[in-house]
Every structure is written in C-alpha cells, then in structure tokens.
Write a structure and sequence with these properties.
Blueprint: H1 33-40, H2 44-52, H3 54-65, H4 67-76, H5 82-102, H6 107-125, H7 133-168
Helix pairs in contact: 2-5, 3-4, 3-5, 4-5, 5-6, 6-7
Length: 169
C-alpha cells in the first residue's frame, strides 16, 4: 500500500524544504519541536550514555566490591590468572563506560573497548552452540542482546560525533 493516496505526489509542497525532505531536514540539528529541544539539550547525551553503559559500569562496581567473586567468575571460565582477568575486566568496563558517557573525542575508544570485550565474552562465557535445551536458548538470547548493545555503542559514537560537530558550528 502506498503512503499517499493515488494521484497524490506526497506532502504539500509548502511543507517541504528546498531539498524536498521535510520541514526540518535542512536546519542544523535536524529536528523541530520537543524532539529537537531534547536532541540539543546538553544533559541528554550523558544521561542516555549512562543508561546505555549501565551494564558495564555497574558490573565493574560490583566486581570491585566483590573482587573474590569476580576472581571466581574468571576462574570458572578458565581465564588464568583469574585475578588479573578480573582486574582487566574492571578496568575495561569502567574506563570504556566513562569515555562513552563523557562523549568527547575518545568516545570511539571507549565504545571500541566495550565492543571488543562484549564480543570476547561470546566464545568464553556464552557457548550456546555447545549447550542443549533451555540453557542453550537463554545463552543464545544473551548473545543476541550483546549485539543490540554493540549497536547502541556504535550509535553513541555517531551521536557524540554529531554533537561535537554541532558545537563547532
């Protein structure tokens, strides 16, 4: 089914900008109304980035508080020496999250750190292809969620770059 009734070429011409893409597409910021105000608000990116990276910074804080449990978790997955892997995991999760939340020129590095670590957990901790039944289904769902998080981190890199460029104009 077409978006516009037969014979209708689209939205009224006065609703289009010279590019023909809609009323706000040619303006810096690209959005109008409350969406535009929110997109340009200084507090929005850090709040959303904090929510996006919650799984990483919260995990690192719980590993700091319960370092013995973090070490046992690393040992469970055969990572040796477990204390070193626990410390490395904490550092990557915390530093990566902070770099993404800050949204500066190094957001790509923070997102990259978290993406590599997230991908690395799949063959180490989420081997659903070696499992059966409900355990395999649950682990596969976790892997699928990991890919959604990776997409969110890449989107944060793009958003931070657009935000930085908007400040420069």
């Amino acid at each position: 089914m077409d978006a516009f009734p037969q014979g209708d070429a689209g939205p009224p011409q006065d609703a289009l900008t010279p590019s023909g893409r809609g009323p706000s597409a040619d303006r810096p910021g690209g959005f109008s109304g409350w969406v535009g105000r929110m997109a340009r608000a200084r507090w929005v990116y850090p709040v959303l980035a904090t929510l996006l990276t919650y799984i990483f910074w919260w995990s690192s804080l719980t590993k700091i508080v319960g370092f013995e449990a973090a070490t046992a978790e690393m040992a469970q997955f055969g990572l040796n020496p477990p204390a070193a892997f626990a410390a490395l995991t904490i550092a990557v999760q915390l530093l990566g999250a902070v770099l993404v939340i800050c949204g500066g020129r190094l957001v790509w590095l923070g997102a990259g750190m978290l993406i590599v670590m997230t991908l690395g957990t799949v063959p180490v901790a989420h081997r659903y292809w070696q499992m059966t039944g409900i355990q395999a289904i649950l682990e596969q769902a976790i892997v699928q969620e990991h890919f959604s998080v990776i997409g969110g981190l890449l989107l944060a890199v793009v958003a931070a770059e657009l935000r930085r460029k908007a400040k420069d104009t």
